[in-house]
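Working notes for the structural subgroup meeting. M.R. asked for a predicted model of this chain before we commit to crystallization trials. I am recording the input and output together here so anyone reviewing the notebook later can reproduce the run.

Input as submitted:
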Amino acid sequence: MNLTSLVSVIGLALATVREHKLRSFLTVLGVIIGTGAVIGVGSIVAGLDTAISNLLRSFGPNTIIVLRGSAMGNWTPEELRRKPIDLDQARMVAERCPAVEHVSPYLFPLRGIHTARYQGNDVYNIDLGGTEEGYAFGGLTLKHGRFFTDLENSHHMPVAVVGEDIEKQLLPNVDPVGKWIVVDGHALQIVGVADRPAAALPGQNDLRVLVPYFTMRKMFPNAFEHMLVVIAYPGMLDRAQDEVRATLRLARHVPYSAPDTFSISTSEQMIEDFHRVTGTVALVMVILSSIGLLVGGIGVMNIMLVSVTERTREIGVRKAVGARRSDIILQFLTEAVVLTVMGGILGLLLGWTISRVAGLAFPTLPTAVPLWAAAGGVMMSVGVGLFFGIWPAARAAQLDPVEALRYE
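Returned structure, recorded in C-alpha coordinate form:
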Protein backbone atom coordinates (compact mmCIF):
# COMPACT_ATOMS: atom_id res chain seq x y z
CA MET A 1 0.00 0.00 0.00
CA ASN A 2 1.30 3.47 -0.90
CA LEU A 3 1.05 6.68 1.11
CA THR A 4 -1.84 8.01 -0.99
CA SER A 5 -3.97 4.95 -0.28
CA LEU A 6 -3.20 5.16 3.44
CA VAL A 7 -4.16 8.84 3.56
CA SER A 8 -7.38 8.01 1.72
CA VAL A 9 -8.26 5.26 4.22
CA ILE A 10 -7.53 7.57 7.18
CA GLY A 11 -9.71 10.26 5.59
CA LEU A 12 -12.53 7.76 5.17
CA ALA A 13 -12.16 6.72 8.84
CA LEU A 14 -12.28 10.36 10.00
CA ALA A 15 -15.37 10.96 7.87
CA THR A 16 -17.07 7.99 9.56
CA VAL A 17 -16.17 9.40 12.98
CA ARG A 18 -17.62 12.80 12.02
CA GLU A 19 -20.87 11.21 10.92
CA HIS A 20 -21.34 9.59 14.35
CA LYS A 21 -19.71 12.06 16.76
CA LEU A 22 -21.58 11.14 19.93
CA ARG A 23 -21.38 7.41 19.28
CA SER A 24 -17.65 7.67 18.57
CA PHE A 25 -17.07 9.66 21.77
CA LEU A 26 -19.00 7.19 23.94
CA THR A 27 -17.15 4.33 22.24
CA VAL A 28 -13.72 5.64 23.20
CA LEU A 29 -14.72 7.00 26.62
CA GLY A 30 -13.14 3.99 28.29
CA VAL A 31 -9.94 4.56 26.30
CA ILE A 32 -9.93 8.23 27.35
CA ILE A 33 -10.34 7.36 31.03
CA GLY A 34 -7.83 4.50 30.88
CA THR A 35 -5.17 6.53 29.08
CA GLY A 36 -5.75 9.55 31.33
CA ALA A 37 -5.47 7.38 34.43
CA VAL A 38 -2.24 5.75 33.21
CA ILE A 39 -0.66 9.13 32.44
CA GLY A 40 -2.00 10.83 35.59
CA VAL A 41 -0.91 8.00 37.88
CA GLY A 42 2.46 7.81 36.13
CA SER A 43 2.93 11.55 36.64
CA ILE A 44 2.04 11.43 40.34
CA VAL A 45 4.21 8.36 41.01
CA ALA A 46 7.15 9.92 39.16
CA GLY A 47 6.68 13.18 41.06
CA LEU A 48 6.50 11.42 44.41
CA ASP A 49 9.59 9.40 43.49
CA THR A 50 11.48 12.62 42.68
CA ALA A 51 10.30 14.37 45.83
CA ILE A 52 11.31 11.53 48.17
CA SER A 53 14.62 11.01 46.35
CA ASN A 54 15.41 14.71 46.82
CA LEU A 55 14.36 14.50 50.46
CA LEU A 56 16.66 11.54 51.13
CA ARG A 57 19.54 13.23 49.29
CA SER A 58 19.05 16.29 51.52
CA PHE A 59 20.60 14.27 54.37
CA GLY A 60 23.91 14.97 52.63
CA PRO A 61 26.29 12.90 50.49
CA ASN A 62 28.49 12.01 53.47
CA THR A 63 25.79 11.16 56.00
CA ILE A 64 25.19 7.66 57.37
CA ILE A 65 22.04 6.78 59.31
CA VAL A 66 22.26 3.95 61.86
CA LEU A 67 19.16 2.35 63.39
CA ARG A 68 18.42 -1.00 64.96
CA GLY A 69 15.91 -1.70 62.17
CA SER A 70 15.34 -0.74 58.56
CA ALA A 71 15.61 2.95 57.75
CA MET A 72 12.44 2.65 55.62
CA GLY A 73 10.31 1.69 58.66
CA ASN A 74 7.92 -1.27 59.00
CA TRP A 75 10.32 -3.19 61.23
CA THR A 76 10.05 -6.95 61.30
CA PRO A 77 9.47 -8.81 64.59
CA GLU A 78 13.15 -9.80 64.55
CA GLU A 79 14.21 -6.15 64.24
CA LEU A 80 11.89 -5.15 67.08
CA ARG A 81 13.53 -7.76 69.33
CA ARG A 82 17.00 -6.31 68.78
CA LYS A 83 18.71 -4.36 71.57
CA PRO A 84 18.40 -0.60 71.02
CA ILE A 85 21.42 1.42 70.00
CA ASP A 86 22.64 3.51 72.92
CA LEU A 87 24.86 6.48 73.73
CA ASP A 88 27.89 4.33 74.60
CA GLN A 89 27.84 2.85 71.10
CA ALA A 90 27.74 6.35 69.63
CA ARG A 91 30.80 7.27 71.69
CA MET A 92 32.64 4.15 70.51
CA VAL A 93 31.97 5.03 66.88
CA ALA A 94 33.31 8.55 67.46
CA GLU A 95 36.47 7.23 69.15
CA ARG A 96 37.31 4.24 66.93
CA CYS A 97 36.38 5.35 63.40
CA PRO A 98 39.06 7.61 61.85
CA ALA A 99 36.99 8.21 58.71
CA VAL A 100 34.11 9.66 60.75
CA GLU A 101 34.02 13.42 61.28
CA HIS A 102 30.97 13.73 63.54
CA VAL A 103 28.64 11.34 65.35
CA SER A 104 25.40 12.62 66.82
CA PRO A 105 23.06 10.39 68.79
CA TYR A 106 19.41 11.19 68.16
CA LEU A 107 17.04 10.16 70.96
CA PHE A 108 13.37 9.65 70.10
CA PRO A 109 10.72 10.32 72.76
CA LEU A 110 8.32 7.67 73.98
CA ARG A 111 5.44 6.93 71.62
CA GLY A 112 2.45 9.22 71.75
CA ILE A 113 1.23 12.60 70.52
CA HIS A 114 3.60 15.36 71.57
CA THR A 115 2.49 18.99 71.77
CA ALA A 116 4.00 22.46 71.90
CA ARG A 117 2.24 25.52 73.36
CA TYR A 118 2.83 29.27 73.44
CA GLN A 119 0.35 31.69 75.02
CA GLY A 120 -2.72 29.59 74.28
CA ASN A 121 -1.63 28.45 70.81
CA ASP A 122 -1.06 24.71 70.45
CA VAL A 123 0.64 22.53 67.85
CA TYR A 124 0.02 18.79 68.01
CA ASN A 125 2.03 15.82 66.77
CA ILE A 126 5.35 17.63 66.71
CA ASP A 127 8.58 15.87 65.67
CA LEU A 128 10.48 15.90 68.95
CA GLY A 129 14.04 14.66 69.27
CA GLY A 130 17.17 15.07 71.37
CA THR A 131 20.58 15.37 69.75
CA GLU A 132 23.98 17.07 69.96
CA GLU A 133 25.70 19.99 68.31
CA GLY A 134 27.24 17.79 65.58
CA TYR A 135 23.74 17.15 64.19
CA ALA A 136 23.82 20.60 62.61
CA PHE A 137 26.75 19.55 60.39
CA GLY A 138 24.40 17.21 58.47
CA GLY A 139 23.11 20.07 56.33
CA LEU A 140 20.74 21.81 58.76
CA THR A 141 20.58 25.58 58.20
CA LEU A 142 18.98 28.21 60.42
CA LYS A 143 16.48 30.92 59.57
CA HIS A 144 16.86 32.70 62.91
CA GLY A 145 19.20 32.37 65.88
CA ARG A 146 21.68 29.53 66.39
CA PHE A 147 21.95 25.83 67.17
CA PHE A 148 22.46 24.74 70.77
CA THR A 149 26.01 24.02 71.94
CA ASP A 150 27.72 21.06 73.59
CA LEU A 151 27.99 23.17 76.77
CA GLU A 152 24.20 23.59 76.85
CA ASN A 153 23.86 19.87 76.25
CA SER A 154 26.18 18.87 79.08
CA HIS A 155 24.38 21.23 81.48
CA HIS A 156 20.92 19.91 80.49
CA MET A 157 19.82 23.42 79.46
CA PRO A 158 16.12 23.88 78.53
CA VAL A 159 16.72 25.22 75.04
CA ALA A 160 15.30 24.20 71.65
CA VAL A 161 15.62 24.71 67.92
CA VAL A 162 12.23 24.62 66.22
CA GLY A 163 11.04 24.05 62.66
CA GLU A 164 9.62 26.73 60.40
CA ASP A 165 5.98 25.70 60.85
CA ILE A 166 6.32 25.68 64.64
CA GLU A 167 7.32 29.33 64.38
CA LYS A 168 4.45 30.16 62.00
CA GLN A 169 1.78 28.43 64.07
CA LEU A 170 2.93 29.33 67.59
CA LEU A 171 4.68 32.68 67.19
CA PRO A 172 3.32 34.47 64.09
CA ASN A 173 4.67 38.00 63.62
CA VAL A 174 6.86 37.62 66.71
CA ASP A 175 10.63 37.29 66.97
CA PRO A 176 10.83 33.68 68.20
CA VAL A 177 14.40 33.74 69.52
CA GLY A 178 14.39 33.96 73.29
CA LYS A 179 10.72 33.07 73.68
CA TRP A 180 9.68 30.24 76.01
CA ILE A 181 7.37 27.48 74.81
CA VAL A 182 5.94 24.51 76.67
CA VAL A 183 6.64 21.08 75.16
CA ASP A 184 4.87 18.16 76.85
CA GLY A 185 4.73 20.16 80.07
CA HIS A 186 8.40 21.23 79.95
CA ALA A 187 9.38 24.89 79.46
CA LEU A 188 11.98 25.38 76.69
CA GLN A 189 13.59 28.56 75.39
CA ILE A 190 13.87 28.91 71.62
CA VAL A 191 17.45 29.67 70.53
CA GLY A 192 16.99 29.07 66.80
CA VAL A 193 14.53 28.40 63.99
CA ALA A 194 15.60 25.87 61.35
CA ASP A 195 14.97 26.42 57.66
CA ARG A 196 12.48 24.09 56.04
CA PRO A 197 14.33 21.12 54.50
CA ALA A 198 15.33 21.84 50.90
CA ALA A 199 13.27 18.85 49.76
CA ALA A 200 10.17 18.15 51.83
CA LEU A 201 7.43 15.65 51.10
CA PRO A 202 4.25 17.05 49.50
CA GLY A 203 2.05 18.57 52.18
CA GLN A 204 4.63 17.89 54.91
CA ASN A 205 4.86 20.43 57.73
CA ASP A 206 8.14 21.28 59.43
CA LEU A 207 7.15 20.55 63.02
CA ARG A 208 10.60 19.73 64.37
CA VAL A 209 11.53 20.54 67.95
CA LEU A 210 15.18 19.67 68.58
CA VAL A 211 16.54 19.81 72.13
CA PRO A 212 19.96 18.91 73.59
CA TYR A 213 20.42 15.18 74.10
CA PHE A 214 20.73 15.28 77.91
CA THR A 215 17.82 17.71 78.14
CA MET A 216 15.78 15.09 76.31
CA ARG A 217 16.99 12.48 78.79
CA LYS A 218 15.79 14.70 81.59
CA MET A 219 12.38 15.18 79.94
CA PHE A 220 11.94 11.47 79.10
CA PRO A 221 14.05 9.31 81.46
CA ASN A 222 12.56 6.11 80.03
CA ALA A 223 13.20 6.93 76.34
CA PHE A 224 15.52 4.36 74.74
CA GLU A 225 15.17 4.43 70.92
CA HIS A 226 18.25 5.96 69.30
CA MET A 227 19.39 6.83 65.82
CA LEU A 228 23.00 7.66 65.01
CA VAL A 229 23.68 10.42 62.50
CA VAL A 230 27.23 9.75 61.31
CA ILE A 231 29.01 12.23 59.05
CA ALA A 232 32.05 10.91 57.18
CA TYR A 233 34.95 12.97 55.94
CA PRO A 234 34.56 13.95 52.26
CA GLY A 235 35.46 11.07 49.95
CA MET A 236 35.58 8.53 52.79
CA LEU A 237 31.94 7.39 52.95
CA ASP A 238 32.60 3.72 52.06
CA ARG A 239 35.49 3.47 54.51
CA ALA A 240 33.39 5.10 57.23
CA GLN A 241 30.59 2.56 56.67
CA ASP A 242 33.03 -0.32 57.09
CA GLU A 243 34.49 1.20 60.26
CA VAL A 244 31.05 1.90 61.76
CA ARG A 245 29.87 -1.64 60.98
CA ALA A 246 32.95 -3.23 62.55
CA THR A 247 32.74 -1.02 65.65
CA LEU A 248 29.04 -1.65 66.23
CA ARG A 249 29.36 -5.41 65.73
CA LEU A 250 32.07 -5.40 68.40
CA ALA A 251 30.09 -3.14 70.73
CA ARG A 252 26.92 -5.20 70.35
CA HIS A 253 28.76 -8.56 70.68
CA VAL A 254 27.59 -9.88 67.30
CA PRO A 255 29.19 -13.28 66.49
CA TYR A 256 31.46 -13.43 63.46
CA SER A 257 29.07 -15.56 61.37
CA ALA A 258 25.86 -13.78 62.47
CA PRO A 259 24.20 -10.96 60.48
CA ASP A 260 24.20 -7.37 61.72
CA THR A 261 21.77 -6.48 64.49
CA PHE A 262 21.45 -2.93 63.17
CA SER A 263 21.03 -1.18 59.82
CA ILE A 264 23.44 1.22 58.16
CA SER A 265 22.01 3.37 55.38
CA THR A 266 23.18 6.24 53.21
CA SER A 267 20.89 8.47 51.20
CA GLU A 268 21.58 6.55 47.98
CA GLN A 269 20.91 3.20 49.67
CA MET A 270 17.62 4.49 51.07
CA ILE A 271 16.66 5.76 47.61
CA GLU A 272 17.34 2.30 46.16
CA ASP A 273 15.20 0.70 48.88
CA PHE A 274 12.43 3.20 48.18
CA HIS A 275 12.59 2.50 44.43
CA ARG A 276 12.13 -1.22 45.08
CA VAL A 277 8.99 -0.51 47.07
CA THR A 278 7.48 2.10 44.76
CA GLY A 279 8.36 0.15 41.62
CA THR A 280 5.94 -2.59 42.61
CA VAL A 281 3.31 -0.08 43.75
CA ALA A 282 3.58 1.87 40.50
CA LEU A 283 3.23 -1.31 38.44
CA VAL A 284 0.08 -2.34 40.33
CA MET A 285 -1.41 1.15 40.00
CA VAL A 286 -0.75 1.28 36.25
CA ILE A 287 -2.24 -2.20 35.77
CA LEU A 288 -5.38 -1.19 37.68
CA SER A 289 -5.60 2.03 35.68
CA SER A 290 -5.33 0.02 32.46
CA ILE A 291 -8.64 -1.68 33.20
CA GLY A 292 -10.25 1.38 31.63
CA LEU A 293 -8.35 0.65 28.42
CA LEU A 294 -9.67 -2.92 28.42
CA VAL A 295 -13.22 -1.69 28.86
CA GLY A 296 -12.67 0.87 26.12
CA GLY A 297 -11.27 -1.81 23.81
CA ILE A 298 -14.34 -3.98 24.28
CA GLY A 299 -16.50 -0.97 23.46
CA VAL A 300 -14.50 -0.32 20.29
CA MET A 301 -14.87 -3.96 19.19
CA ASN A 302 -18.61 -3.86 19.86
CA ILE A 303 -19.19 -0.68 17.88
CA MET A 304 -17.02 -1.90 15.03
CA LEU A 305 -19.12 -5.07 14.80
CA VAL A 306 -22.23 -2.87 14.65
CA SER A 307 -20.54 -0.79 11.97
CA VAL A 308 -19.80 -3.91 9.89
CA THR A 309 -23.49 -4.87 10.04
CA GLU A 310 -24.64 -1.35 9.14
CA ARG A 311 -22.25 -1.12 6.20
CA THR A 312 -22.76 -4.60 4.75
CA ARG A 313 -24.03 -3.24 1.41
CA GLU A 314 -21.09 -0.79 1.24
CA ILE A 315 -18.68 -3.69 1.75
CA GLY A 316 -20.46 -5.64 -1.01
CA VAL A 317 -20.17 -2.71 -3.41
CA ARG A 318 -16.46 -2.28 -2.65
CA LYS A 319 -15.79 -5.96 -3.22
CA ALA A 320 -17.85 -5.92 -6.42
CA VAL A 321 -15.70 -3.14 -7.90
CA GLY A 322 -12.45 -4.95 -7.06
CA ALA A 323 -11.59 -4.32 -3.42
CA ARG A 324 -9.48 -7.09 -1.96
CA ARG A 325 -9.90 -8.67 1.48
CA SER A 326 -6.76 -6.88 2.64
CA ASP A 327 -8.32 -3.53 1.62
CA ILE A 328 -11.42 -4.23 3.70
CA ILE A 329 -9.33 -5.36 6.69
CA LEU A 330 -7.17 -2.24 6.42
CA GLN A 331 -10.22 0.01 6.20
CA PHE A 332 -11.83 -1.29 9.41
CA LEU A 333 -8.54 -1.63 11.29
CA THR A 334 -7.73 1.97 10.40
CA GLU A 335 -11.12 3.12 11.67
CA ALA A 336 -10.57 1.28 14.97
CA VAL A 337 -7.05 2.74 15.36
CA VAL A 338 -8.21 6.26 14.47
CA LEU A 339 -10.93 5.97 17.12
CA THR A 340 -8.56 4.80 19.84
CA VAL A 341 -5.79 7.26 18.88
CA MET A 342 -8.28 10.11 19.22
CA GLY A 343 -9.27 8.64 22.56
CA GLY A 344 -5.58 8.40 23.50
CA ILE A 345 -4.98 12.07 22.65
CA LEU A 346 -8.00 13.12 24.71
CA GLY A 347 -6.76 10.81 27.49
CA LEU A 348 -3.35 12.51 27.29
CA LEU A 349 -5.06 15.85 27.91
CA LEU A 350 -7.03 14.31 30.80
CA GLY A 351 -3.83 12.88 32.30
CA TRP A 352 -2.08 16.25 31.97
CA THR A 353 -5.05 17.89 33.73
CA ILE A 354 -4.83 15.34 36.57
CA SER A 355 -1.11 16.08 36.85
CA ARG A 356 -1.68 19.85 37.00
CA VAL A 357 -4.44 19.51 39.61
CA ALA A 358 -2.15 17.33 41.76
CA GLY A 359 0.61 19.92 41.35
CA LEU A 360 -1.72 22.72 42.49
CA ALA A 361 -2.97 20.68 45.45
CA PHE A 362 0.61 19.79 46.50
CA PRO A 363 2.95 22.60 45.37
CA THR A 364 6.05 20.67 46.50
CA LEU A 365 5.15 17.68 44.32
CA PRO A 366 6.94 17.84 40.93
CA THR A 367 4.19 16.38 38.73
CA ALA A 368 5.40 16.98 35.17
CA VAL A 369 4.07 14.29 32.83
CA PRO A 370 7.01 11.95 32.12
CA LEU A 371 7.70 11.17 28.47
CA TRP A 372 7.40 7.42 29.10
CA ALA A 373 3.89 7.84 30.53
CA ALA A 374 2.68 9.99 27.61
CA ALA A 375 4.22 7.74 24.95
CA GLY A 376 3.10 4.59 26.78
CA GLY A 377 -0.49 5.83 27.10
CA VAL A 378 -0.80 6.69 23.40
CA MET A 379 0.92 3.45 22.30
CA MET A 380 -1.42 1.44 24.51
CA SER A 381 -4.41 3.14 22.88
CA VAL A 382 -3.05 2.24 19.41
CA GLY A 383 -2.52 -1.34 20.58
CA VAL A 384 -6.09 -1.48 21.87
CA GLY A 385 -7.39 -0.33 18.49
CA LEU A 386 -5.36 -2.93 16.62
CA PHE A 387 -6.18 -5.80 18.98
CA PHE A 388 -9.90 -5.18 19.32
CA GLY A 389 -10.32 -4.16 15.68
CA ILE A 390 -8.97 -7.40 14.22
CA TRP A 391 -12.14 -9.49 14.65
CA PRO A 392 -14.56 -6.92 13.18
CA ALA A 393 -12.16 -6.27 10.30
CA ALA A 394 -11.78 -9.99 9.58
CA ARG A 395 -15.54 -10.46 9.75
CA ALA A 396 -16.05 -7.65 7.25
CA ALA A 397 -13.43 -9.11 4.89
CA GLN A 398 -15.09 -12.55 4.95
CA LEU A 399 -18.49 -11.28 3.74
CA ASP A 400 -19.62 -12.74 0.42
CA PRO A 401 -20.08 -9.85 -2.04
CA VAL A 402 -23.28 -11.28 -3.54
CA GLU A 403 -24.90 -11.80 -0.11
CA ALA A 404 -23.66 -8.39 1.01
CA LEU A 405 -25.30 -6.66 -1.99
CA ARG A 406 -28.62 -8.36 -1.16
CA TYR A 407 -28.46 -7.26 2.53
CA GLU A 408 -31.24 -4.91 3.60
